Amino acid sequence: MKITVIGLGQMGGNMALTLQSAGFAVTGMDTVEGARERLAAQGLNVVTPDALPASDVYLLSLPTSEHVREVIETTPGLLTRAPVGSVIVDASTSDPVVSRELAGKVTAAGLHWLDAPVSGGPKGAATGRLGMLLGGDEATIAHVTPMLEAMSAKYTHVGGPGSGHVVKLANNYLCAAHLVTTAEAVAMAARSGVEPTACLAGLNSGSGRSAVSEVNFPEWILSGRFDSGFTTGLMRKDLRLARDAAAQLGMPLSLLQKVVEMWHVDRDHPSDSDDFNHITDTILTAATTDTATHSGEDNTR
């Protein structure tokens, strides 16, 4: 199986190297020269956009739906350059409406489509331990199963084209909400004298636990590392996509709207380039402020 990975950022680059290590014939492509040079230095065969090879699979790992559209449609795009019967796999987190539109054009051109947004970050991409949400038909999934197994710890087929991206947006909405709610819970406990690690141990033994409390807080927040590989700007983009998807379905989700607002209230703190776990900074800082004013509060209410 010949695979071309388009988009050699932290995710795409690591996926390309993982697939190459698994024995696939992999070529990488990126419009950014620095990305191509970085992957070439790690032993990956890389090409410029005008030298895109014929492949069995084109794996896209790009920032937005519009980047995906450009790669597929812009002349000469994959609609005209990809061999008939090849598979376009969109591992980006994309707008499901755009994905369904593009899937129709891809199919009409004699190609196959699979949306396959991922979770697990650069580490999961580098170790072949990603989680993948698949939107497409079962025959296409069966065709690329060896690739999926090399990339992921688990993949889940959730429906037709666009479905993977819908569920990915739902997942990221929950992650964004859990970061805020868990930070508030930890801050409340800290103001009461409970250490954050002790609070998290308690939460993780009960029904309030989540991947955020079990992974994000110890791995990136309390450690002070903030190096998950996923930026605040990308999470903000995904939240806007989730909000727009809900609106298109006629669902005025008030809590979703509130989460979107909280993530956009101050575009500089955190900035779009900051690790997304920094959204907890302001909340957790409040837990360490002087609590003397609280000691004299009227507790008879």
From TrEMBL:
Instruction: Give a Pfam family name.
Output: NAD_binding_11
Q: Which residues form the 6-phosphogluconate dehydrogenase NADP-binding domain?
A: 2-159
Q: Which GO terms describe its molecular function?
A: NAD binding; NADP binding; oxidoreductase activity, acting on the CH-OH group of donors, NAD or NADP as acceptor
Q: Show where the 3-hydroxyisobutyrate dehydrogenase-like NAD-binding domain sits.
A: 162-278
Note whether Amino-acid biosynthesis occurs among the keywords.
Answer: no
Active site annotation, chain numbering: 168
List the PANTHER family hit by this protein, alphabetically.
Answer: 3-HYDROXYISOBUTYRATE DEHYDROGENASE, MITOCHONDRIAL (PTHR22981:SF7), 3-HYDROXYISOBUTYRATE DEHYDROGENASE-RELATED (PTHR22981)
Q: What is this protein called?
A: 3-hydroxyisobutyrate dehydrogenase
**What is the species of this protein?**
Modicisalibacter muralis
Lineage, top ranks? Bacteria, Pseudomonadati, Pseudomonadota, Gammaproteobacteria, Oceanospirillales
